[in-house]
């Protein structure tokens, strides 16, 4: 059946890079042949330089002429192949650039859709209203803070005479307390019912008499 109807070719189709690689291999093989021909022509040239004119020299020239024609044919073929490889390289670069361009365009389309979805949900009027509400709240907060920081029944200014009177009264009070505590007694502001832990209490007088 396969002989009658054939089979479907499942092998991957060659790409431009595959074709360029094949041409490069052919060019390399032609370079090898050209190197060999140049070596033979150099040998003939050396022999002809030493030979005298005659049938032998003419026959050697004919061989050298044949090799020279072959070399020109191979050089022409090599130039054609290199031109083909160059054109294919340009086509491959153009194809890659087009692919990159299409990828960039697709990415831009996707980004544009996402931006439309995102910014389409934003209501400018609501944002402005929210900003106005925030400003109102800030003003109210400032008013509340100003109200809470207000002082009550505290005079703004104190005159020098009032200051002198207060200082004199304070001095008299301190002198009175000094007179009341005269005689080595501890002042009232230094009296304390309990002594510090590092001060030993005095022994009772009865204990001294017993000793």
Automatic annotation (TrEMBL):
Residues 57-91 form a coiled coil. InterPro entries: Snf7_fam. GO terms for cellular component: fungal-type vacuole membrane; multivesicular body. Keywords: Coiled coil. One of its GO terms (biological process) is vesicle budding from membrane. The keyword Coiled coil applies. The keyword Magnesium does not apply. Belongs to the SNF7 family. This is Charged multivesicular body protein 5. It comes from Babjeviella inositovora NRRL Y-12698.
